[in-house]
Specification:
This protein is mainly alpha-helical. It is built from five helices and two strands. It has helices at residues 3-10, 15-28, 30-50, 64-75, 88-122; strands spanning 53-55, 83-85. Strands 1-2 form a two-stranded antiparallel sheet. The protein is elongated, with a radius of gyration of 21 Å.
Amino acid sequence: MDNAAKEAVDTRIQPQEAMAEFARVLWHLRAILAMLLTLFLILSLTLYYVGGAVDAATRAPSSLGETFYFCAVTALTIGYGDVVPATTLGRIIAVSLGLLGVLITGVITGSAVYAIQMAAHRAGLRSG
């Protein structure tokens, strides 16, 4: 094995470089992420005021905290089912929150992949 090949095998991506690149990518996407967070908050407040979120066990209207919890669990696509929307508009908002969660997950995942690719490129690793 020649020196260049051996050096290429020994080259590694440093975790701190990959994390720094990930932070830079997220910083560049801050406007998009802020818009997604704002949309999440708007949908959460809309669900609280007009969506009819109720506790599944007691059927009592949920508090603002429980509604935010439901929205976060829905956006993260976990969906425990302990707080549920009781109206059609609430269910539409819940589906929108689920789609928003998938979108946010895609943006974050794509950013992480790009960051690792950039860190690899800077480390001298070539793909392909």
